[in-house]
Amino acid sequence: MHYKFALIASSVFILSACGGSGSDDTPTVNGNKIPILSVADIPSDLSKGQTVELIATASDKDGTIESVIWQQTAGITVLSEPLESISTTLTIPEAQSYKPVTYTFTVTATDNEGASNAKTLSFTARNNMDEVSAARLLHQATMGPKLSEIQNAQGLSEQQWLDKQIALPINYHRNYLVKLNDDDDFKYISRIDAWWKAVMQSDDQLRQRVAFALSEILVVSDENSALRGQPEGMVTYYDLLLKHAFGNYRDLLEDVTLSPIMGTYLSHLGNEKADDTLNIRPDENYAREVMQLFTIGLEELNLDGSVKLDAQGNTIATYGQSEIEGFARVFTGWTFADSETFKRKSHDYIKPMQAFDEYHSGKQKTLLNGEVIPQGYAAEESLQIALDNLFNHQNVAPFISKQLIQRLITSNPTPQYVERVASVFINNGAGVRGDLAAVVKAIYLDDEARHFGSVLNYQGKIKEPILKTVQFWRNLDAKSPAGYYKTWNLINSYGQGPMQSASVFNFFRPDYQTAALRNEGIVAPELQIANDATLIGTMNALYASLVWSTAEAHSDLNSNSIYVYVQSDMNILEKNGVSALLAQYNALYFASAMSSNTRQALLDLDAYFNEDQYRERVSYLLYMIAISPEFNVQY
Amino acid sequence: MSINRREFLSLCVKGGVSAAALTSLQLQALTGATNAVELGDYKALVCVYLYGGNDSLNMLVPLEGEQRSVYEQSRQNLAVENPVALSIKNQFAGGVGIHPSLAPIQSVFESQSLAFIGGVGTLLAPTSLSDYKNKTIGLPKHLFSHNDQQAAWMYGREKQSLNSGWGARLLERLELQDEFAANISLDGTNLWQTGSATNAFALNKSGISNINAFGGYQPRSEHVTSIMNRLLGNTSHPLSTAYANGLTSAINNTQAMNSALESAPTLITPFSDNSLSEQFSAVAKTISVQAKLSTQRQVFFVSMGGFDTHDNQLTTHPALLNTLAQGLSEFDSAMKELDMADKVTAFTMSDFGRTLTSNGDGTDHGWAGNQIVMGGAVKGGNIYGELLTQHLDGPQDTGGGRLIPSVANEQYFATLAQWFGVPSSELVDIFPNLSNFDHTTLDFFV
């Protein structure tokens, strides 16, 4: 072995004297002992952006060390060419994606006779969220982040934060459902109260956010419906979304289908086989909507969510009337659990529905993609085959993935983003289809969500109106002295409320555009409910809460009124001044992206007040933030 | 292709249209020579949208004879019993009755202020059963699907890359797109009123809605307002700009509407305590201050949900029809009280009719249905179009009792548009499928 290299003056060699020990097992090459080489340990948990010291120790028993050379063999390039040095300090490159990066270096020591020894050093650097990254992630992945939550997320990688969230025990809303005041029973307002308590207090915020998104895809509603009298059933339905938020979409679809709440809402509960003498045929309601809204949509899609076209340039329908009739037959024979007979119903709105085969249509059932259930199949077998058929349709992955991206991250994902997530829906990496935990992680960890690489100028989404209030209320510890959240008429103020859509088509459609946005070719689903009446309604609700309902402004608190608590914000103003408070609000309400214009406007707003009007100053700053265009978009 | 000049020019500038493909009207628009319509007296259209697909074939049913037995055979337990006989003798030989729950509009009908249009639905061209089965005629896309058929009714034409509602297109043709009070919804955003240059002002059904932040100590509220305006006027992200523009116009228009409504007279006509009647009441109030709002044309949108009667139809549908009839009759009284009846026409739209067959205790998504028009200008007391025979497996049944319409909804809309002031020669520009029909309009206006 022969190495030629230039000597670098700054290199420091640690030379050891020739050893006199006779029991030397150092390998030799042609009688020459090769150098002894070791590398110093490096910290086990390394983050991108951090510095790391590579330190070698080299000696030679029968000569001298001529050179020590570091070379990089894996990872983002930090040593573009071999470096002759016994040690070096490197800065690990900043994050360019969520993925941990493994770096490998080889150090080679060569002695005066040309013999060499080499060691390899490898480490993996993970992301290390700073305040900006943590604030951005938590704005997307919680119901509205608290300061403590942003602080706790800092120092973790995005992946670590998501994994921790996914592993948290589920805060089911049933646990928050209580009978209010002297009520004998659960009332509609009990379930609204439970929703507020859960989203305000629970730590499994990612799950709460994903379940809320699912409640806007797999829609049920007790607005103008008999379900208003079934708050316990409604909460049970929401809990099913929480349960499966990180489970499998197939299981979710089955539990949704068999929910007596869904059965009532889309009328397949009590649906029975045809009676030709009376011109009665199975109810087509659920058959239609489970396809159009819960799984595949109306038109065939490419994996990237775009619409497939045939040779003539026309869209291709995913199903026709024969498939609807086939699925309508599938969803016959089901009614409330523990019913005595199909007609003597138990009215149990909690347990999954039960089948009565004598009311199930045994006729042949046409499913998607030409699959057919032959005649004679019973209710349960038919259901399993039909749900498998739906779940395995090629549209489900892009159809559901894109809508989840729109609910969680951005209204206008690129087709590539949709395709990356849909591919994970198809296969989580371990051969499993429909793994929602994997899908959710793919959604949040994608470069497009994390702003790695170039950021689209229309990246992000309009915040949902009710989530704006959740965000303020979580931070301001909003509560009533009685401990209840009795928020009536959410629809009037916000145009939405949990499980209160006017129809199964949700509060807004995924492709809604205003006239102005149409010209830019982008959609903004949430703006479908941002009409004059709700915009003013939301503005008034926020003013009423943030300005009129601070606990600090009232000496007597009304037992059922919800107050926000602003004392700690007032303290910051008093001790550290408005700049300190705005720095905190920047992370809390703007995901650290407040522009200087907005900051200046808030300072000018604040300048109107006397310095010691701490409460008014906090109230008006919060209110103006709530109105500001920058707060209203989740980037 | 809309005939709105602004939309049209922008399309041309983008190179989307070659001049050869233009109609004479569009050429006029391009050269800025569109004939301005002399608006004359005030007129308003009130769309009453029945979400979910009204089983409107059950609003008008045969009383006796063969049609009645065919009807009962088809409808079985969902056949309407004890219909209220109408005095007219056209349509069914054995006479026609309205659903007993519609009784509140019987007198409006008999006083010639209300008419029905029979057999209406989405159609691209006249379509027979063999056309349907052999696909010799193009069909509207996604028949029987709620949101697609809602869109077809609200667009008044097939979906295209740039969509606009026909209510908005009427206003844009009459060059009223800049008058917010010309386009008012009592039920938020909807496709019918969303155009390329106009969208509905969403009025709260309680009428005046004060803005909390603008009350209280005046110097403070002025300061707050000025900062708010600064923030709303200074955006860069397209979504925050869309939000800010929406809020800015909401604030301005709400304040303008509040100040107009402050002078509204108190109506003697009582309105019921339900959402539809409340919406009608707010429309009546707004019409009562029409002079203050100084717009010569208005379109209003009110709505009712719950018509998707897949189950419990025998309980729910009569209640829905009764609420509808009650609201219409109250609105008719209010218009007469205001002496505006001749100037205001209310009409219904719905996703689709429903199946003649039952699914046990309800019906599923169908196609053709019947509609209601009401107002002093309507030649009331009559039924236009064609009441379809409710014959299962009959000449218009595509299967399960989903009947092919005999009147295109665009013919129905064009009649309303013509009354509203759109020149007859331009109706086909607004409702393009009309070119496939012999008649562009029905004859239900005086």
Coarse shape of chain A: globular
Write down the Rg of chain B: 23 Å
Overall geometry of chain B = globular
Total DSSP E strands of chain B: 12
**What is the mean predicted local confidence, pLDDT of chain B?**
92
Please give the largest β-sheet of chain A: 5 strands, mixed
Strand content of chain A: 5-15%
Instruction: Indicate the structural class of chain A.
Output: alpha+beta
Largest inter-chain contact set = A-B, 76 and 78 residues
Range of helix content of chain B: 25-40%
Number of helices of chain A: 22
Assess the beta-strand content of chain B as a share of residues.
Answer: 5-15%
Main sheet: strand order of chain A: 4-10-9-6-7
Termini Cα gap of chain A: 58 Å
In oligomeric terms, what are we looking at?
A: heterodimer
Order of helices and strands of chain B: HHEEHEEHEHHHEEHHHHEHEEEEHH
Question: Distance between the terminal alpha carbons of chain B, to the nearest Å?
Answer: 30 Å
